Amino acid sequence: MRKLVVTENITLDGVIDMTGGWFDPLNQDVDQSDITAATTEHREAADALLVGRNTFEAFRGFWPDQKDDHTGVSDYLNAVDKYVVSRTLEDPAWENSTVLRGPLADEVHALKAAPGRDIVATGSVRLVHELIAEGLVDEYRLFVFPVVVGRGARLFESVDVRLELLETRPFTSGAVLLRYAAGSTR
Fold first, then answer.
1. Which residues does residue 142 pair with via DSSP β-bridges, in sequence order?
2. From CA 39, how far away is CA 82, in angstroms rounded?
3. Which residues pair with 83 in a beta bridge?
4. From the CB of residue 18, how many other CB atoms can be counted at a distance below 10 Å?
5. What b/e readout covers 113-124, taking b as 16+ CB neighbours within 10 angstroms?
C-alpha cells in the first residue's frame, strides 16, 4: 500500500501559510543545494501529488513557466500525476491532472490502494487539516525554517496528534528537516 506523505515548509511557530512572503521557493540568495538534494530524494520516492484547488491553481499559474528552475520542481510537477480535490474545478488544464470530487476518505483510500510510490500532499491548508482529522496521513516531512511570523494557518490546529520521529536533518541555511511517522489522532 502506498503512503500518504504531508510535506510542508513550516515556520518555527508552526505556520504553513505562505502569507507574508516568508518563503521563496526560488531564493537564490541562500545556498539551498542541500535542501534541493533532500527534496529531490523525496520527489524520486513519489509519483502522485494531492492538493486542494487553491494550491493547485497557484502551482499551475507559477511552476510550468519556470524554465530556468534550478530545483527540478517545475519538471517534476509537469510530469507527476496530480490529484486536485475540488467540487468547483471543471477542467484542470494541466497535463496529468485529475479532479477528485468524491468523499475525501474514499478518494484517498483508493489512491493509497493503487500501485505506485508515495502520494505527497503539500500546501493545501484546508485539505491537509482534513487529511489529519481523518487519520489518512502516514508520514510528515516538515522543512522547518528559522522564521517566526506570529500569525497564519498552522499545520496542527485543534487536534492532538502523536508522532514518531524518523529523521532530523539540518541544512546550511539554518532550516531543518523533521520526518515523522504519523501516530494516533485524538
1. 8, 178
2. 17
3. 50, 98
4. 18
5. eeeeebbbbbbb
Distance CA(112)–CA(139), nearest Å, equals 13
Degrees, nearest 5: CA angle 14-156-81: 95
More confident call, 158 vs 78: 78
Domain boundaries, given as residue ranges, for the chain: 31-185
Q: How far is it, in rounded angstroms, from Cα 77 to Cα 61? A: 12
CB atoms within 10 A of CB 72: 13
Q: Which fold has domain 31-185?
A: Dihydrofolate Reductase, subunit A (3.40.430)
Any idea how long the chain is? 186
Global pTM reads: 0.90
What would the grid cell of residue 90 be?
471543471
Q: Which runs of consecutive H residues, i.e. helices, occur in the chain?
A: 33-44, 53-62, 73-79, 104-113, 125-133
As a whole number, mean pLDDT of residues 25-35 equals: 65
